[in-house]
Write a structure and sequence with these properties.
The protein is an all-alpha fold. The chain has 12 helices and no strands. Keywords: Coiled coil.
């Protein structure tokens, strides 16, 4: 009995290393591993009969699990091969492989080697999608198509959330939105870097464009994207601060010289800027703290009004 128990324990222990070899790609076709698994299953069956065990619910054998794992590795390989292409990568092929993985993922969901391979593939896919987005900046139709594709990819990968313990799911839509937000912020920062000749129309356009994509950049919560999201938040606050400083200084100049036309233009700009920035700062339109309220208060204070 002792020998049988030790043999059973040893045979059962073969499952984990065999699956790891398949996951790591060490087993080309896994023919040898499948033969070992078949022998292990047969051995366990004989030992069970010898022990006179009462038949219970059917248990998935090691061989069956390895067969499933081989299929999983094949789909992961399809993703990796497509993502490794220096040019001409077809994102649809990657998403199709991802979709094919979902119904066969559950048996390997808790195995670290498989989670690692899927995570690496998804990380690489994020990089390639972000790269495509950066190349498409300025081409509205291409950006729109990429965002639509990203939403579809999100839906496909979200199916893994309840299946993969510890598997980190990152939104493709949010990743691309951060690339777009970065571009709009750079446009705003470039205008504000001008000591003279600031173009208010361009500044407003970049901020309006930013406000449209801002809700999709993701929350600044602890996670893989925290640093990039936090950086965007800090930069947009800096842009707002510089706009306030520039406009307040311009208003003081207009008030001191009695330039009513310039004052009205600044107040109009402030109103339009608030329309763009209020959604970013999470404020209701026209609420306290906006640029228009600050400029009006400054003008009233200069004139001695309320």
């Amino acid at each position: 009995d002792t020998v049988c128990n030790e043999l059973r324990d040893f045979t059962s222990s073969l499952e984990a290393p065999l699956l790891r070899r398949v996951a790591d790609g060490a087993a080309k076709g896994a023919e040898a591993e499948l033969r070992v698994a078949a022998v292990a299953d047969e051995t366990l069956s004989i030992l069970k009969k010898r022990a006179g065990s009462v038949p219970g619910p059917a248990v998935v054998g090691i061989h069956k699990k390895l067969e499933g794992a081989v299929v999983v590795v094949g789909k992961l390989g399809e993703m990796s091969t497509e993502l490794a292409k220096p040019s001409g990568m077809n994102p649809k092929v990657v998403v199709q492989a991802l979709q094919a993985l979902e119904p066969i993922w559950s048996p390997v969901a808790e195995l670290e080697a498989f989670k690692q391979r899927l995570t690496e593939a998804l990380d690489q896919f994020h990089e390639r999608m972000a790269e495509a987005c950066r190349k498409a900046l300025g081409a509205e139709a291409k950006i729109k198509a990429l965002l639509a594709f990203a939403e579809d990819a999100d839906a496909k990968q979200q199916a893994f959330a309840p299946l993969g313990l510890g598997l980190v799911i990152r939104s493709f839509r949010e990743s691309l939105s951060r690339v777009i937000a970065d571009d709009h912020l750079k446009a705003s920062e470039a205008e504000l870097a001008k000591e003279t000749g600031l173009n208010p129309v361009q500044l407003l356009k970049s901020m309006m464009d930013l406000s449209k994509v801002w809700p999709q950049i993701g929350k600044a919560d602890p996670g893989p994207a925290y640093d990039s999201i936090n950086d965007l938040h800090n930069r947009v606050k800096e842009v707002n601060s510089k706009v306030h400083s520039r406009m307040e200084a311009s208003l003081q100049d207009a008030l001191s010289t009695g330039n009513k036309k310039k004052e009205e233009a600044l107040l109009k700009f402030a109103q339009e800027f608030d329309v763009a920035y209020d959604p970013i700062r999470g404020a209701e339109p026209g609420s306290d703290g906006g640029l228009l309220a600050v400029l009006r208060a400054a003008a009233a204070g200069c004139r001695g009004g309320p």
